[in-house]
Amino acid sequence: MAAQPPLIYPFDDAAIAEAAAIIEAGGIVAVPTETVYGLAADARDARAVAGIYAAKGRPSFNPLIVHVADLAAAEAIATFDDDARVLAEQFWPGPLTLVLPLRADAGIASLVTAGLDTIALRVPAHRAMQALIAATGAALAAPSANASNGISPTRAEHVAVSLGVRVPLIIDDGATKAGVESTIVAGRTILRPGPVTTEMLGAVLPVAPGTTAHVSAPGQLATHYAPSKPLRLNAIRAEADEWLIGFGAVAGDDTLSAHGDLVEAAARLFDALHRADTSPPERIAVAPVPEHGVGVAINDRLRRAAHR
Ligand code: TXA
Ligand code: MG
Question: Ligand 1 in contact with 23 (CB < 6 A)?
Answer without folding.
Answer: no
